[in-house]
């Protein structure tokens, strides 16, 4: 098409003969690429036939694809980025709970049985431990406040991103 257009423009005197030569060279180059791709496709098809142990060509249908009907949903949470943001909000909520639990008392116990220096009877016992945080209440409050602000920030960003995807999805579907 480019070659035909250039040929007409040369006949009318609109462009120089050099443009026609360039268009002809480009046409030959594209024809060579097309032929090369056909040969490569034949070789790949033969390899596929050999790998599948079949004696039939597996080529795509030579007709245009039909447009797939898509329904737009109001709730577009199926998008991976939106799911990731929702997960980040949930993680921020969990981090708040973790920080709140760091200032609570910790109780633990253990039971043990061990042989000491080759003795026949094992040394057994148990231990119970309780730890109470006495210092650092200001740091504790600041850590909880920090996690609350992170959650608030992530929640604030979430609806903005939700609205940003809808126009792009519509543009993609209308193409």
Radius of gyration: 36 Å
Number of strands: 2
Read across the widest sheet, the strand sequence of neighbours is: 1-2
Instruction: Point out poorly predicted stretches.
Output: none
Distance between the termini: 24 Å
Residues in helices, as a percent range: 55-70%
What is the chains' assembly state? single chain
SS-based class: mainly alpha
Task: Tell me about this structure.
The protein is mainly alpha-helical. Helix content is 61%, strand content 10%. The protein has four helices and two strands. The chain has helices at 2-12, 17-52, 80-101, 137-174; strands at 106-114, 123-131. It has a two-stranded antiparallel sheet with strand order 1-2. Strand 1 and strand 2 form a beta hairpin. Helix 3 runs antiparallel to helix 4. It is elongated and about 105 Å long. 2% of the residues are buried. The model has no long low-confidence stretch (mean pLDDT 80).
In short:
By secondary structure, the chain is mainly α. 61% of the residues lie in helices and 10% in strands.
Key terms:
175 residues, 2 domains, two-stranded antiparallel ribbon, elongated
Secondary structure: elements and pairs:
Elements: H1 2-12, H2 17-52, H3 80-101, E1 106-114, E2 123-131, H4 137-174
Antiparallel strand pairs: 1-2
């Amino acid at each position: 098409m480019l070659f035909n257009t250039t040929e007409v423009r040369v006949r009318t005197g609109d462009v120089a003969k050099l443009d026609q030569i360039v268009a002809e060279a480009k046409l030959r180059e594209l024809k060579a690429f097309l032929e090369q791709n056909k040969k490569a496709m034949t070789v790949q098809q033969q390899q596929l036939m050999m790998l599948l142990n079949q004696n039939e060509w597996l080529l795509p249908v030579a007709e245009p694809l039909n447009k797939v009907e898509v329904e737009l949903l109001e709730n577009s949470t199926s998008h991976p980025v939106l799911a990731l943001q929702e997960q980040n909000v949930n993680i921020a909520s969990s981090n708040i709970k973790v920080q709140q639990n760091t200032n609570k008392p910790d109780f633990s116990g253990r039971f043990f049985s061990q042989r000491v220096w080759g003795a026949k009877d094992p040394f057994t016992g148990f231990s119970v431990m309780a730890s109470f945080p006495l210092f650092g209440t200001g740091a504790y409050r600041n850590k909880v406040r920090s996690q609350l602000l992170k959650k608030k920030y992530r929640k604030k960003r979430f609806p903005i991103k939700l609205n940003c995807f809808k126009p792009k999805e519509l543009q993609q579907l209308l193409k």
